[in-house]
Amino acid sequence: GVVDDQPVQNGQNLRSPICCIMGHVDAGKTKLLDCIRGTRVQEGEAGGITQQIGATYFPAENIRERTKELKADAKLNVPGLLVIDTPGHESFTKLRSRGSGLCDLAILVVDLMHGLEPQTIESLNLLKSGNTDFVIALNKVDRLYGWETYPNAPIRKAIRQQSKDVMIEFNMRLTQVITQFKEQGLNTELYYKNKEMGETYNIVPTSAISGEGIPDLLLLLVQWAQKTMIKRLTYSEKVQCTILEVKVDEGHGTTIDVVLVNGVLHEGDQIVVGGMQGPIVTSIRALLTPHPMREFRVKGTYLHHKEIKAAQCIKIAAQGLDHAIPGASLYVVGSNDDIEVIGKSTMAYVHKVMSRTDKS
Ligand code: GDP
Question: Which residue, 105, 119, 209, 244, is most buried by CB atoms nearer than 10 A?
Answer without folding.
Answer: 244
